[in-house]
Structure prediction request, 258 residues.
Amino acid sequence: MVMRTQDGSAGDVDYGAIGRGYASYRRPDERIAQFIAEALGDARNVLNVGAGTGSYESAAHTITAVEPSLAMRAQRPAELATAVDAVAEDLPFADKQFDAAMTLFSVHQWSDVAAGLREMRRVTRGPVVVLTCDPTRVRDFWLYEYAPEVLDTEARRHPPLHHLTSALGGTTTIQFVPIPLDCTDGFNEAYYGRPELLLDPAARQACSAWSFIGDQAREDFDTSLRCALGSGAWDGAFGHLRGRPAYTGSLMLLRSTA
Prediction:
């Protein structure tokens, strides 16, 4: 049985505690959305597991959303479908019910990733699409010099890609997803060329890995990054990123067909 918090969150993060304001900082980016749309192809009925506030749910599809956290379900816009209160590991749907399924920035939250992906495959006729991060590349980001605990946490939580492909079965393709300089979806790497934005505590709170470190570590990060920006040290080392139109980091898109 999957353990759940009072909010209903089913993974290692309680979104009832950290999820307020999430929708303001994790807004879908249209360029990332295009990668997802291409992976879903001409599917009509699409399952979205770990749907959160509904990012990347397109009007081009009939969406069935699954989201265990009450706090996240409450932030879904009124025009989106009401999310089903369920977990990935136990989906309340019939075999092959959906044309396609997707899970975006979610698998690292699940109690049993393999079981959740097997469930997605069970209820899906066509492609299963997973947007995630490659844990072997997470620490390559400049943030590791200022908040190593955060990226160590991300690297630990994100499942290795070969674990995902094994659980999905069938044939899986993997592609890098470039991150735009003005990315509107505020995960850590979205700020690769805008470091000042990570000085906003609310922006950090919208990235769940920050909830795993203590107040002192957050204060130390804030102090060290402010000093590096003020002295010019950050720009000396990483200033070239400010003008880079896109960044190829750890963000990956998997597309699996049976």
About this structure: The chain has ten helices and eight strands. The chain has a mean pLDDT of 94. Residues 193 and 240 are 8 Å apart (CA to CA). The first strand starts at residue 45 and ends at 49.
